[in-house]
Amino acid sequence: MKQFFILFLLSLLAACSSESSIEEALVSSEPVVNELTIKRVKKIKEMFLTIPSPVETAELFFISGAEYRSDESNPAENVNRYTTNGAKALNLGVYGADLSYANVFDQSQESMIYINCAKKMADALDISSAFGVETIERFEENMNNRDSLMRIIDDAFWIIETHLKDNGQDYLSALIMTGGWIEGLYLGTKLLEKDKPNEELMHVIAAQKSSFRSLMNLLITYSNAEVRAVEKEMKGLENAYNKIDENAINPSIIFEISDAVSLVRAKIIR
Fold first, then answer.
1. Contact indicator for 176, 93 with CB cutoff of 8 Å
2. Taking the CB of residue 12, how many other CB atoms lie within 10 A of it?
3. Structurally, how many domains does the chain consist of?
């Protein structure tokens, strides 16, 4: 889904004057909205540099030696409970992460369940073209090709981002990112065993401090009530990450992060 973040970055860039570069915009006396656009571009750049790609996430799962746990994903029956656009966007991100999670472990049946969940969320946001008949058919035809499925998922989220950009709803893109990031971290923490936590997995979770900081810095640039509410809910996770020393991993802090992200995630999918 890194392609999604790239397009989100490009869509924000497009909001600046086509006559000037980002550097020129930074020193010019533009309206406040353009200053915010530039600020968001910086935050997306930071996220792009720090957020793990689906392939990197897959490697994390395999390195940990964990087995697929379908009970940790957002239940498909929850798909009809989200009524606001913010909740739909957050859970589109969540279901996108669950879809990637199932795909990583070659769970064909689960993958089909979660692509249909993602489709319902996209349809609810009036972006039915993202998971149209052709996309679903491509998904079914490539069910045994993990790399092809990842590209299909990327293509769908590319369509979503284009639609949101064209309709001036980039705050929903930020919420999709947030939902996907939270679900990815949540699934990662659920691979930990309390009695004997995987050392490398703990380091990877600790290393997400940078991407988390970038995500928070992005969210605070929005005045949208649903974005601000999510940012507020993430304060406990922020407090936990502030205790992290990546050079000396403390398992108790990692499990504090696990508890904190579980609370945020529970409120997102409720």
1. yes
2. 23
3. 1
**Secondary structure of the chain in HEC code, one letter for each residue:** CHHHHHHHHHHHHHCCCCCCCHHHHHHCCCCHHHHHHHHHHHHHHHHHHHCCCHHHHHHHHHHHCCCCCHHHCCCHHHHHCCCCHHHHHHHHHHHHHHHHHHHHCCCHHHHHHHHHHHHHHHHHCCCHHHHCHHHHHHHHHCCCCHHHHHHHHHHHHHHHHHHHHHCCCHHHHHHHHHHHHHHHHHHHHCCCCCCCCCHHHHHHHHHCHHHHHHHHHHHCCCCCHHHHHHHHHCHHHHHHHHCCCCCCCCHHHHHHHHHHHHHHHHHHHC
**What is d(CA 124, CA 204) in angstroms, rounded to the nearest whole number?**
34
User: Which residue do the tokens 């860039």 mark?
Assistant: 13
What whole-number distance in Å separates Cα of residue 44 and Cα of residue 38?
10
**pLDDT tens sequence across 2-21:** 444 433 433 333 333 333 33
- In 3D space, the residue among 129, 124, 130 whose CA is nearest the CA of residue 81 turns out to be 124
* Gap between the Cα atoms of 246 and 263, Å rounded: 23
Give the separation between CA 224 and CA 84, rounded to whole angstroms.
13
Q: How confident is the model over 38-54, as pLDDT tens digits?
A: 566 665 555 555 555 54
Dist. CA 88–CA 92, nearest whole Å: 6
Phi, psi of 81 (to 5 degrees): -90, -10
- Measured between alpha carbons, how far is 222 from 231 in angstroms, rounded to an integer? 10
Question: Domain of 42?
Answer: 2-269
